[in-house]
Write a structure and sequence with these properties.
The protein is an alpha+beta fold and 67 residues long. The protein has 1 helix and 4 strands.
Length: 67
C-alpha cells in the first residue's frame, strides 16, 4: 500500500507514473485537494481527471450528471 501524506507533485507524479505504466512528469499534472475526503487529491493529466485515495489508489474521475 502506498500512503501519500502531502500533495507533493514529484511524489504524486512518481506514483501516478507507476499506475499509468508510463513516464508522467510533475509539471504535466495538476493537483488539487479533494474536499470530500481527507488525504485524497484530484489529479489532472492531459484531458482526463483522476482521484487519488489516501491509500495511494488511483482511479478515473467519472463525470456524473446531476438532475
Amino acid at each position: 500500500m502506498d500512503i501519500v501524506y502531502a500533495a507533493e507533485k514529484p511524489s504524486i507524479a512518481s506514483l501516478f507514473s507507476e499506475r499509468m505504466k508510463r513516464c508522467v512528469r510533475p509539471e504535466d499534472i495538476m493537483i488539487t485537494e479533494n474536499p470530500d475526503e481527507t488525504g485524497s487529491f484530484y489529479i489532472g493529466w492531459q484531458m482526463d481527471r483522476y482521484i487519488m485515495a489516501p491509500d495511494g489508489g488511483i482511479s478515473p474521475d467519472i463525470l456524473r450528471l446531476v438532475d
